[in-house]
């Protein structure tokens, strides 16, 4: 669209709203902009932001036409002045004023960064079906999408002046201090990719633990087993067991924090080579959550993933948690803006065809889902350890399901439930446009049967039922696609 430098009229300091990554890698972008004497209108793939005289209006909805986007909220910013445009490109527009910077990104994310104490008030223009709340953080969803409001939890603190939900003109009003930032996003920020959802079938496994006689640590599935998987699956996720070096001899296998150093390089190179020959992608395990707990270093995490990409030509990663609050005080590291930047960087690193699978359950937190983070992922896995009694429960409908919210592929790692419901759970997953993974594992704590590591290749009955139902839905989708195309041609 344009280079940012040509549109910078002065050397403004907008570092507080400038973040690495590139949303255009994954089909989200700044579509159109208009500026005139401090007033602006910015259209993204999934939203529109309009600012006039201290009010920032947010419209949400996919489609290029302006009238397809609905007003969902008005942000009243006390004492806000006219904005100057500091940077503009396909990924973002950065705006500067005396007391507030704003960054608007093509994934429909808006970051407010305050330079002085101010009142910021949100007034809603839609009645959410789901109203997730933790302190001042809000996740508001209905059948057409919605929005998130996430003040940074541990920057300078903020005061909740008033939050009133349960109605169309809901209110959320805050007193925010200097250096406080708020992340706001409208969603979904991109369309649902039906073809990707039919062709991103995941098998999860790990390497051999070197137990028994003659078995080496880090042994990988054989060429035959990988080729057999390639008949049913598109992506291999490798967990850390039997993959990374055991840095402490007293431990049976590495801690998920890393460092992410491949233990058996020839075996892993062979796995990647054969998988690629068979048309499969490889995504090894990593965890920003555990890594940050141990090393307190976000850049170290990213650089290790970048090095795995360089050395082994991996296609992506399975991310076992970003920075969020755990149950202990020392785990209070929630930083949603840093999480968003990291997932942007990973998507840019691996490209549009790369794989990012995010496992980020957070034990049923009402604001655990962050749709503008999820939207960069191939798939997100939620629900581990979260019990449920009904498919109509809010957590299942609005955090497990991703269709119409982030429009990534939803994976359900089911919590406690009656086993007799499995078939009905599969049907419910598909009705929500969620998908399933399948696992092929070898023993971790004892030598393998017959002293030989063997990974199973025959899928079980439940997964067979799922794939048969998925094939039926794929055929229906393709027939409907042909009908829609024929109608347009007429």
Task: Report what the structure shows.
- With 490 residues, the protein is α/β, with parallel strands linked by helices.
- The protein has two domains: 183 residues; 270 residues, TIM Barrel.
- The protein contains ten helices and 25 strands.
- The strands form three sheets. Strands 24-23-22-21-20-19-18-17-25 form a nine-stranded parallel beta sheet. Strands 1-2-3-4-5-10-15-14 form an eight-stranded antiparallel beta sheet, with no helix packed on it.
- Helix 5 packs parallel to helix 6 and helix 9 packs parallel to helix 10.
- The N terminus is likely disordered.
Keywords:
single chain; 490 residues; alpha/beta; TIM Barrel; 9-stranded parallel sheet; 8-stranded antiparallel sheet; 10 helices; 25 strands; 23% helix; 28% strand
CATH superfamily membership of the largest domain, which one?
A: Glycosidases
CATH topology of the largest domain: TIM Barrel
Shape: globular
Radius of gyration: 23 Å
Largest sheet strand order: 24-23-22-21-20-19-18-17-25
CATH architectural category of the largest domain: Alpha-Beta Barrel
- What's the total helix number? 10
* CATH hierarchy class name of the largest domain: Alpha Beta
Low-pLDDT runs of 5+ residues are 1-9
The helix content is: 10-25%
The first-to-last residue Cα distance is: 34 Å
Main sheet? 9 strands, parallel
- Count the E strands: 25
Strand residue percentage: 25-35%
The overall pLDDT average reads 91
Helix-strand category: alpha/beta
């Amino acid at each position: 669209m344009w280079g940012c430098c040509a549109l910078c009229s002065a050397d403004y300091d907008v570092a507080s709203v400038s973040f690495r990554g590139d949303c255009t890698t994954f089909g989200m972008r700044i579509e159109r902009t208009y500026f005139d004497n401090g007033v602006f209108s910015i259209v993204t793939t999934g939203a529109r932001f309009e600012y006039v005289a201290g009010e920032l209006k947010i419209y949400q909805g996919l489609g290029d036409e302006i009238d397809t986007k609905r007003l969902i909220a008005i942000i009243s910013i006390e004492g806000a002045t006219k904005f100057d445009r500091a940077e503009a490109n396909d990924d973002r527009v950065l705006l500067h004023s005396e007391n507030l910077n704003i960054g608007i990104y093509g994934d429909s994310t808006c970051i407010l960064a305050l330079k002085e104490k101010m009142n910021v008030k949100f007034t809603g223009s839609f009645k959410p079906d789901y109203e997730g709340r933790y302190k001042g953080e809000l996740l508001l969803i209905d059948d057409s999408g919605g929005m998130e409001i996430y003040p940074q939890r541990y920057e300078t603190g903020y005061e909740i002046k008033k939050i009133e939900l349960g109605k169309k003109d809901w209110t959320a009003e805050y007193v925010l201090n200097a250096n406080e930032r708020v992340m706001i996003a409208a969603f979904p920020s991109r369309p649902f990719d039906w073809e990707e959802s039919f062709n991103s079938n995941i098998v999860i496994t790990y390497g051999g633990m070197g137990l028994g006689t003659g078995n080496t640590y880090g042994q990988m599935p054989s060429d035959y087993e990988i080729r057999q998987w390639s008949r049913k699956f598109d992506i291999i996720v490798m967990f850390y067991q039997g993959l990374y070096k055991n840095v402490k001899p007293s431990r049976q296998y590495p801690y998920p924090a890393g460092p992410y150093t491949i233990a058996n390089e020839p075996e892993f190179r062979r796995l990647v080579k054969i998988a690629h020959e068979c048309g499969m992608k490889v995504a090894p395990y990593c965890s920003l959550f555990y890594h940050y707990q141990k090393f307190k270093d976000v850049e170290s995490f990213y650089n290790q993933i970048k090095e795995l990409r360089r050395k082994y030509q991996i296609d992506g990663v399975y991310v076992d948690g970003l920075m969020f609050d755990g149950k202990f005080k020392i785990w209070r590291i929630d930083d949603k803006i840093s999480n968003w930047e990291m997932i942007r960087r990973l998507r840019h690193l691996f490209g549009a065809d790369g794989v990012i699978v995010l496992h980020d359950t957070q034990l049923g937190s009402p604001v655990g889902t962050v749709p503008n983070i999820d939207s960069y992922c191939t798939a997100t896995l939620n629900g581990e350890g979260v019990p449920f009694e009904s498919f109509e429960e809010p957590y299942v409908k609005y955090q497990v399901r991703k269709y119409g919210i982030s429009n990534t592929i939803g994976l359900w790692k089911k919590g406690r439930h009656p086993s007799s419901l499995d078939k009905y759970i599969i049907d419910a997953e598909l009705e929500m446009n969620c998908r399933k993974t399948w696992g092929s594992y070898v023993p971790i704590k004892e030598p393998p049967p017959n002293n030989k590591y063997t990974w199973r290749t025959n899928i079980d009955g439940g997964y067979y039922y799922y794939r048969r139902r998925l094939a039926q839905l794929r055929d229906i989708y393709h027939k409907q696609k042909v009908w829609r195309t024929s109608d347009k041609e007429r």
